[in-house]
Amino acid sequence: MKDGLEVTWGSGSPNAWRVLLAAEMKNIPYTSKLIEFSGDDIKKPDFLAINPRGKVPVIRDGNYSLYESLAIMAYLERRNPKPARPSSFVIGLDTPSRRVSIKSTQTKGAS
Ligand SMILES: N[C@@H](CCC(=O)N[C@@H](CS)C(=O)NCC(=O)O)C(=O)O
């Protein structure tokens, strides 16, 4: 199991940029893992075990993993409340109609 935050992203992915920007703005150190959409990285069983939808962004934080960019942003906000995110950064994230429920997937055999 790796310590610290790892962000898996793909070039040209605005959903992944959202997560990378949030980590940067909140000064959260992370390991960047760039995958190639042209390869089969996101269709491999170990990736699908983390995100069955086979999409980025995905994070790992120790043995915890999470997908869906808004859920990841909510997680990062709770993990590192300071500095607080700008209120305009994730408009509506905290409103009841957009409330994000965080479901975790346990990473099996993560190294
Ligand atoms: N609702 C998801 C959307 C994730 C998504 O669509 N990711 C795209 C890149 S922006 C992706 O991984 N596409 C690769 C594919 O579908 O093969 C989120 O916000 O994280």
CATH topology: Glutaredoxin
Classification by helices and strands: alpha+beta
Q: CATH superfamily assignment?
A: Glutaredoxin
Numbering strands along the chain, what is their spatial order in the largest sheet? 2-1-3-4-5
CATH architecture: 3-Layer(aba) Sandwich
Estimate percent helicity.
Answer: 10-25%
> How far apart are the termini?
4 Å
Helix and strand element order: EHEHEEHE
Rg from Cα: 14 Å
Top-tier CATH class: Alpha Beta
Q: What is the overall number of helices?
A: 3
**Small ligands present:** glutathione
Bulk shape: globular
Total domain units: 1
Unreliable segments (pLDDT under 50, ≥5 consecutive)?
none
Q: State the major sheet.
A: 5 strands, mixed
Mean pLDDT, all residues = 84
Q: Report the count of strand segments.
A: 5
How much of the sequence lies in strands comes to 15-25%
Draw up the topology in text:
Elements: E1 5-10, H1 14-25, E2 30-35, H2 45-48, E3 58-61, E4 64-67, H3 69-79, E5 105-106
Helix pairs in contact: 1-3
Bound molecules: glutathione.
